[in-house]
């Protein structure tokens, strides 16, 4: 306002509660807010104190005592409020929006602006398809070696490739090579794709971590198991013999079987014995019959030669036993 009086929204004014012109009345009003301050009031305020209404002092003192009993602390004695502002405001005016006509609502809904969708940023687009990665020459060479190993060898054993010193591994390699067993090492990222597309896919659970293969053209299981028993830190996991998958215990049981040459000799000996026995049984009866007939013929010749000398026929011979 032009007079310097502060105003607030809604028409309210901030006016001082005390409009007395004399300073004595203002000081009395200040002390009326703190009734305990009358004890320390100067003597110049005595007439003004007596001029207070009869109900102001007891009410103020009762309020101060109640505040102390509730646990509150009295205000600081150095600070004395001299003026207090009171807001005299009016009611708030609330304006309501007018309801739009139904036809206009339909028109506004039909003619509502639909902004175009923003273009997708190139960074948000899916990446273009990458060309297929070509295999290097080393991977192709390893694939050919793996295919040759599984094609040309009848026994393939899988072992865990533990941390061995170079000297121990070289000694083991030479001991196996004496019996025609070779040690092969291939990376799993090349070996597993080959096994997935072949008839040996059931061997995939054995290839976990670092592995090595013990292969031989002939199944030298007994020699391999005997050598691996002397190397306990190189465990045998399993493998296959003649396209038959075996576990570790299967290899041990296979090693306890006799050799193929011994089995062949035993089979040939058994068959020869049966043939000889059959031949003997077939020739025994005809040979016995032939010997009996020869003996009968000799006896007849002897009897014929003895009859002309004595002139009497010989007694008849008993019938031969069948």
Would you write up a description of this structure?
This protein is of the alpha+beta class. It has a domain at 153-255: Alpha-Beta Plaits (2-Layer Sandwich). The protein is 44% helix and 10% strand. It has helices at residues 23-32, 46-50, 56-69, 102-110, 137-152, 166-177, 188-196, 221-229, 248-255, 260-310, and strands spanning 13-16, 85-88, 155-160, 182-184, 211-216, 236-241, 244-247. The protein has a 5-stranded antiparallel β-sheet. A hairpin with a 2-residue loop joins β6 (236-241) and β7. The chain is elongated, with a radius of gyration of 63 Å. It starts with 12 loop residues before the first strand and ends in a 12-residue tail after the last helix. Mean pLDDT is 76; it is low at 1-57. It is found in: Mitochondrion. InterPro entries: Ribosomal_uL10, Ribosomal_uL10-like_sf, Ribosomal_uL10_bac_type. Residues 311-322 have a biased composition (Pro residues). Its main location: mitochondrion.
Topology:
Layout: E1 13-16, H1 23-32, H2 46-50, H3 56-69, E2 85-88, H4 102-110, H5 137-152, E3 155-160, H6 166-177, E4 182-184, H7 188-196, E5 211-216, H8 221-229, E6 236-241, E7 244-247, H9 248-255, H10 260-310
Antiparallel strand pairs: 1-2, 3-5, 3-6, 4-5, 6-7
Main location: mitochondrion
Family: Belongs to the universal ribosomal protein uL10 family.
Subcellular location: Mitochondrion
